[in-house]
Amino acid sequence: MSARIVQITDLHLMADPLAELKGVCTRTNLNVVLDVLRRDFGSVERLIVTGDLAHDELQETYEVLRELLSDWLPKLRLIPGNHENRAFMRQVFGDRLAEVDDRNVFADVIGGWRLIGLDSQLPGEVRGHLGESQRDWLARELAAEPFQPTAVFLHHPPLKVGTGWLDEIGLEDAERLLELLWRSPQVKFVCCGHIHHEMTVAQANVLLLTTPSTSVQFLPETERLIPDSVPPGFRIFDLEPDGSFRTRVVRVPIVTETLP
Ligand SMILES: [Fe+2]
Fold it and tell me: Would residue 257 count as lying in a domain?
């Protein structure tokens, strides 16, 4: 029987419920996305949030998020993005993640699959970095179950995505991660956020999937950040015990009511 998991990413939530990012109210968007998830996809096994949770990096914002996600708490797994305060994240979501060398990560098993979440935050920077000790931890996790289908989640894509300004703020030690993934065929896909649009990129045996933000969208193949008018979304995976899987992005139009 397949296991259904959902990824949401780049929430950019703020303590002020009306705060906007590039003209988008991030709180409203997240609420609408979560309503569609509850209504249409109630029976998910895991809800994985891949970073940029708190745009203002305030403890209060993490507390708001915990409240918004309260009905998913037992199924919730989170990793940081570049817009994050690791300590506040851990303080509020300490029971939903693991700590490895001061990084917020997770390792989980569902439906015969291993799900591993990495922390690619480089404090004070937009680009990402995993570091040797975290890679060593990942290598040990992968070596422990070399034949179990595995999915790896991290905020920063480890492959070029073809948009110059986004590639400049990617994962700076990506090559080292790729070396590990190239010799780990049990890793069926790597799933990221950060670029605020949907992509599928394959290189050697590494399949990279990226997912739209729940907030503002970035137009791909531009020379600078240009917001896109496509709706926000999330990604669904159906994981089969034999290592095969299906995935798709679900878009959620945001309809704002106009009072007469
Ligand atoms: Fe983001």
Answer: no
Q: Is the pLDDT of residue 26 over 90?
A: yes
Ligand 1 midpoint to CA 195 (Å): 7
* Residues 157-179, mean pLDDT to the nearest whole number: 96
CATH code, domain with 142: 3.60.21.10
Tell how far the Cα of 213 is from the centroid of ligand 1, in angstroms. 7
Average confidence (pLDDT) over 176-198: 97
Distance in Å, CA 42 to ligand 1 centroid: 26
Question: Is 259 within a domain?
Answer: no
Task: Tell me, in angstroms, the distance from the centre of ligand 1 to residue 194's CA.
Answer: 5
Q: Which residues contact 79 (CB under 8 A, 6 or more apart)?
A: 49, 50, 51, 97, 104, 105, 106, 117, 118, 119, 120, 153, 154, 155
Report CA(108)–ligand 1 centroid distance (Å): 24
Provide the residue range defining the domain that includes 238. 3-251
Q: Are strands 3-8 and 46-50 parallel, antiparallel or unpaired?
A: parallel
Q: How far is the CA of 10 from the centre of ligand 1 (A)?
A: 4
